[in-house]
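Hi L.,

As promised, Small ribosomal subunit protein mS41:
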Amino acid sequence: MSFVAQFHARRLVIRGVLRAPGRLYAADSTKQGSTGGFEPAAAVPNTPSPFQMTPEMIRQQKKSEEATRVPLDKRGYDTKSLLVAFGRKCETKLPDVDTLSWEELFRLNGQKLDKMGLTVQERRYLLWCLEKFRQGEDPKVYAREPQPKKTQRGWGPPIRKKTVPIKP
């Protein structure tokens, strides 16, 4: 295989078009054609076999494994006390917190929390807190209350409170 053919084969492998550089040319094509290069293979399938994992599949598997990682070090927390430490009344938003095990808590994902009835903001906050705890941070450092509503709109005047006249 010429240098140029090897270069293009490697480029296609890097881009993910081919799985291996040897599949670009037929195995028995040692004869040089009229162009001076090797004859290309008849057909190169770009679809992987059912038993071959693509890089995308490997990345997804690693992500799912990292997301379901259960920390062994509880650092003095149980399920309910950890949710209390997260704040925002997380312990009241999840049903059956008393029966929820440590493994079940850290195996929660967005779909399961959605079925439990949590809003998007509550789901995102809870999953963010669980990931921070997995990384070894203390909930007292990163747990925070939601931002209050704004009282100023842009550069204009502040939002006025509605005044109710007092009846004598």
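The chain has two domains: 1-45, 66-142.

Thanks again for sending the construct details.

K.
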